[in-house]
């Protein structure tokens, strides 16, 4: 059964257990619907807060540990309404926090924290002149696919290093007869999708115009997905979210044939291309294949 509650203009959270990785709710408020994601039933450190319709119902943010600056923000004028319920979802998985509208798979607010705080409780409140009515869906084990693009709950990344290939690694390409595996790595403040070539003893990620070798990486494993044709920044809603740029933009897995090699790289929607690491450089292609579920 859904949880129905009222919140006063007090900025005091009401907490309830939710370790499912997904919060689905509807809220009726003029502004400032606040949600806390916490490891305990209190305002703890570390913890995250999501403010929807803050600053006079003009923008939404993600905040960590109740301190500024906010780690992510989006312009969201009119997202809340004092006379009708508006539906939203919040998802957290592998340190990625995504916020979106009910019925829309694409998040309007997203940020990755490499600390990966374990979330066990969710709290809600209103303030700054607002009271709220909430309808919160029952927490369920395993989040449905309506969450952020890529449905992280079905994606397995295994840590490896120095050319190691984990069992059941997903091969997304080929170079001179050798499998090229889908990999990702932390690099210059981002989590960047790229390729693993085992014989080279390293993975590679495209960044800053270069093919960058990264000896420590993660490999996509146990993955049943498919590749579909794509162009520009038209990322399909079931694309696999594999990381994010240093500025917080979600990144996806793409591939393209170049110089006789089927090479895996990153899709950066705002640039309208897939970037592949190849021959020491970062190469961009407008037409490519993208990995989907």
From TrEMBL:
InterPro entries listed in its UniProt record: DM9_repeat, Methyltransf_FA
Record-linked PANTHER family: AGAP009604-PA, FARNESOIC ACID O-METHYL TRANSFERASE DOMAIN-CONTAINING PROTEIN
All copies of domain Farnesoic acid O-methyl transferase, residue ranges: 11-138
One Gene Ontology cellular component annotation held by this UniProt entry: cytoplasm
Descriptive protein name: Farnesoic acid O-methyl transferase domain-containing protein
Source domain of life: Eukaryota
């Amino acid at each position: 059964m859904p949880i129905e509650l009222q919140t006063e203009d007090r900025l005091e959270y009401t907490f309830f257990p939710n370790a499912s990785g997904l919060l689905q709710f509807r809220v009726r408020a003029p502004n400032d619907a606040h949600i806390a994601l916490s490891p305990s039933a209190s305002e703890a450190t570390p913890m995250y807060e999501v403010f929807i319709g803050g600053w006079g119902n003009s923008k939404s943010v993600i905040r960590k540990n109740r301190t500024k600056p906010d780690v992510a923000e989006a312009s969201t004028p009119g997202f809340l309404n004092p006379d009708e319920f508006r539906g939203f979802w919040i998802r957290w998985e592998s340190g990625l926090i995504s916020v979106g509208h009910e019925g829309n798979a694409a998040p309007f607010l997203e940020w990755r924290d490499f600390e990966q705080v374990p979330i066990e409780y969710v709290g809600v409140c209103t303030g700054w002149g607002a009271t709220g009515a909430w309808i919160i869906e029952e927490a369920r084990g395993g989040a449905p696919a309506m969450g952020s693009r890529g449905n992280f709950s079905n994606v397995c990344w295994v840590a490896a290093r120095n050319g190691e290939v984990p069992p059941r690694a997903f091969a997304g390409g080929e170079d001179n007869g050798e499998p090229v595996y889908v990999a990702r790595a932390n690099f210059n403040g981002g989590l960047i999708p790229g390729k693993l070539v085992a014989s080279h003893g390293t993975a590679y990620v495209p960044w800053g115009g270069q093919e960058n070798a990264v000896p420590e990486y993660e490999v996509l494993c146990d993955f049943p997905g498919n590749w579909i044709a794509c162009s520009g920044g038209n990322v399909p809603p079931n694309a696999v979210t594999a990381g994010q740029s240093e500025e917080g933009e979600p990144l996806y897995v793409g591939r393209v044939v170049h110089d006789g090699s089927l090479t895996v790289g990153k899709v950066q929607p705002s640039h309208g291309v897939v970037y592949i690491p190849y021959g020491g450089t970062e190469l961009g292609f407008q037409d490519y294949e993208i990995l989907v579920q």
